[in-house]
Automatic annotation (TrEMBL):
Organism: Promicromonospora umidemergens
InterPro entries xref list: DhaK_L_YcgS, DhaL_dom, DhaL_dom_sf, Dihydroxyacetone_Kinase
SMART domains: Dak2
Keyword terms: Kinase, Transferase
Molecular function, one GO term: kinase activity
Keyword flag Kinase: yes
Protein's name according to its UniProt entry: Dihydroxyacetone kinase subunit DhaL
Chain ranges of the DhaL domain: 7-210
Gene, per the UniProt record: dhaL_2
SUPFAM superfamilies reported in the protein's UniProt record: DhaL-like
PANTHER family: TRIOKINASE/FMN CYCLASE, TRIOKINASE_FMN CYCLASE
Length: 214
């Protein structure tokens, strides 16, 4: 695809769920080290419901990319539990509000939309860089996407750059001291483990690369 259409977005969510379902044990293992061992099951169960909702026959409300992203944001809020529910929801609601009436997003528009979504996520959870959260994977990803778009990259290379940045951001959470969420209760004992939310957020970006490649 050269632009993100509603078809790409629906495929994106389905692929996100597929990856999470396959990596469910890994996500739970990460959360058992610094949390309550439910991130894998939480994400798998919540995303399965969201994908099922997206499969329902179109009711005409998805005329625009913004409307679909907002529908996903609302579905995440009702379906996804724990800390990530309102956070991933805010990401999609903010992205949808920014995408507005457009019916396709080129790389620069995608970057703008996701940057707005990330701002919503931060407004919701007040995570900053280095707090050891999903933000530490998503923020570098959106920055890399933006830079690639500014450099004139197509959607494939631009999303691939975002995924590489997300992977690096995820790995960089290991030495961090957690300052948000459950892991923050562990203090120094949170050091030395990859953040579960940074791992699932990286899967979100990898799923986008896959959806765009179709
Ligand atoms: P819970 O902590 O409620 O059991 P999960 O285990 O599903 O929920 O998700 C934990 C993840 O949520 C963490 O690894 C972290 O990335 C993310 N998280 C928690 N609080 C915040 C926050 N305030 N901002 C951003 N991400 C957060
Ligand atoms: Mg947990
Ligand atoms: Mg929990």
């Amino acid at each position: 695809a050269t632009a993100v259409t509603n078809g790409v977005i629906i495929d994106w969510l389905a692929r996100f769920h597929d990856i999470v379902a396959k990596q469910r044990a890994y996500l739970t293992e990460l959360d058992s080290a610094i949390g309550d061992a439910d991130h894998g099951v939480n994400m798998d169960r919540g995303l399965a419901q969201v994908v099922a909702m997206l499969d329902q026959p179109a009711d005409g409300s998805d005329a625009s990319t913004g409307a679909l992203l907002e529908r996903i944001g609302n579905a995440l809020l009702t379906s996804l539990g724990g800390a990530p529910g309102p956070l991933y929801s805010a990401l999609f609601l903010g992205a949808g509000a920014a995408a507005g009436e457009r019916t396709r997003l080129d790389p620069a528009e995608l970057a703008d939309s996701l940057r707005a979504g990330l701002a919503e996520l931060v407004r919701r959870g007040s995570a900053e860089s280095g707090d050891k959260t999903m933000f530490d994977a998503l923020d570098p990803a959106v920055q890399a996407l933006q830079k690639a778009a500014d450099d004139g990259a197509g959607l494939g290379p631009a999303t691939a750059a975002a995924a590489a940045a997300a992977v690096a951001g995820r790995e960089a959470t290991a030495p961090m001291l957690a300052r948000k969420g459950r892991a923050s209760y562990l203090g120094e004992r949170s050091i030395g483990h990859v953040d579960p939310g940074a791992a699932s957020a990286t899967m979100l970006v990898i799923a986008l690369v896959e959806a765009v490649a179709q």
